[in-house]
Amino acid sequence: MIKLLIADDHAIFREGLKHILEEHPDILVADEAGNGQEVLDYIWKNEYDMILLDIGMPGMPALEVLKQVKNGKPRLPVLVLSMYPEDQYAVRFIRAGASGYLTKESAPEELITAIRKITAGRKYITSSVAEKLADEVEPDADKPAHHSLSDREFEVFRLIASGKTVKQIAEDLFLSMKTISTYRSRILEKMKMKTNAELMHYALKQHMLD
Q1: For residues 96 and 114, what is the distance between their CA atoms, to the nearest angstrom?
Q2: Residue 161 — φ and ψ, nearest 5°?
């Protein structure tokens, strides 16, 4: 039996997932989390064979959730489910320790295949993600500007672009407002921009926001 923790803030989507998974007797949805802190609370109390982790949950960013999961339980596999295209997020999450990345538009059969493959100790990476991982070793000349950001800078960038204030971001990431302001300055410098509006426009153009 494959025991899963589903992490997604949309109850309707969780119900849809459970409906798909219930058709497979070897897969059990043991618990559901609606935000990153709930994910961490569950994994400290219970044992799971895998986490299905949504990128767009409120509060703690999914990348931070993933890192904390891997720090605390490095052998617990995480399959990232996202509404965002692979080219925007997959490589960063795989590098951070995810065992696979699927868009929410994927067929149910692909999700089942990914769950079984990952819980068998392997990774689930599409050919396009494999190509992008290979591209990581190539010169940076043609890469999008956000690829130059560290993981923490990337989290702050996404939150700024989503319209959050420095205070809100500091609360989400459990950091000081001064630290967030420093990250903002670095992000603007690295991406050769001057305002939050430019960051927001870039994120929209790259299809990085809801």
Answers
A1: 18
A2: -65, -25
| 145-205 maps to CATH 3.40.718.10 | no
pLDDT in the model for residue 105: 86
- Domains of the chain by residue range: 2-135, 145-205
Q: In this structure, are residues 149 and 188 in contact, taking their beta carbons and an 8 Å threshold?
A: no
| Integer Cα distance of 5 and 43 in angstroms | 9
Which residue's structure tokens are 């039996």?
A: 1
Superfamily of domain 2-135: Response regulator (3.40.50.2300)
**Mean pLDDT calculated for residue range 149-164:** 91
Are 71 and 193 within 8 A, CB to CB? no
Q: Summarize pLDDT for 24-66 with one digit per residue, the tens.
A: 999 999 999 999 999 999 999 999 999 999 988 888 889 999 9
Sheet holding 78-82, edge to edge: 27-33, 2-7, 50-54, 78-82, 100-103
d(CA 189, CA 10): 35
